[in-house]
Design a protein that fits this description.
With about 120 residues, this protein is α+β, with helices and mostly antiparallel strands. The protein has helices spanning about 30-35, 50, 80-90; strands at about 10, 15-20, 20-25, 100-105.
């Protein structure tokens, strides 16, 4: 599957590195998220992994589907994981590239200054 992990940094105005803020907001339309990518409903006193208990993950996947996104805030867990949704989308053309994240312009001040809330 996918196992990309990286950080994009820029040199801060006052020195030091600042993490470039990205978001997953509006990357997958809400109707697609609700129609195609829903986790099974766990029964009472069950976890999401219990709901996936009778499934088998492909041998090349490093993480069980119930744990996808569990350690990253804001990307969803399991089938509701944004990275999984993007990965599952078909590309329009052979050389078409899929989005990874969108620059979160709400947390960056104009003219390339440091973010309002540095991470």
């Amino acid at each position: 599957m996918f196992n990309d992990s990286f950080q994009l940094l820029f040199n801060g105005v006052h020195g030091g590195n600042v993490v470039v803020p990205f978001t997953t907001r509006d990357m997958v339309p809400e109707r697609v998220r609700k129609r195609k990518f829903r986790n099974p409903k766990p029964k009472e006193n069950e976890t999401l992994c219990d709901a996936f208990a009778n499934t088998t993950r492909p041998p090349w996947w490093q993480t069980d589907v119930c744990k996808l996104g569990a350690n990253v805030q804001g990307v969803g867990v399991g089938f509701e994981n944004i990275d999984l949704m993007i990965w599952m989308q078909t590309a329009a053309l052979p050389n078409f590239r899929k989005l990874y994240r969108i620059l979160d312009r709400e947390t960056i001040q104009p003219h390339g200054k440091e973010p309002r809330n540095p991470l």
